[in-house]
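Following the same procedure, backbone shapes were mapped to integers, yielding the entry below.
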Amino acid sequence: MPQNLVEQEVKLLTQNIKKDDLEKNKKENLKLAKSRIKTGLILNEIGIKNNLKVNESEIQGEIQKQLRSMPGQEKMVLDYYKNNQSAVASLRGALYEEKVVELIKNKIKLEKKNINTKEAEGILKNISENTKSLKSSEIKKDLKKQKTPKKKK
């Protein structure tokens, strides 16, 4: 994994964190950054293999949706996208990821499986252990970042 990509992602993740917390959570932030990069690369590869693209009308549609959700601020939103190509690129990336996720959701086949209580407890314990390392503030921050458009990797 390219080191500069990892460093960029860590910067994005930690841009509003105090210096003390940066050092304290350095290992977790690095792990989260690498995980996000891997996820982005996988999603991108799926999009490429399935010839997914985001066209201008989809971008304009998303901008119109944002305009409707911000009455009275339409000019500000339009100017933002008109004068900020990185914001348009970020919006394109978010729409692309949405398309890839929708494709995946449409292709998967879910099967119901009956399990006993012991198996269910094991699954829940495994999930709990995997998420223990993330602190609630990191989870909230990551969720907030996922809701806002981000640059395509």
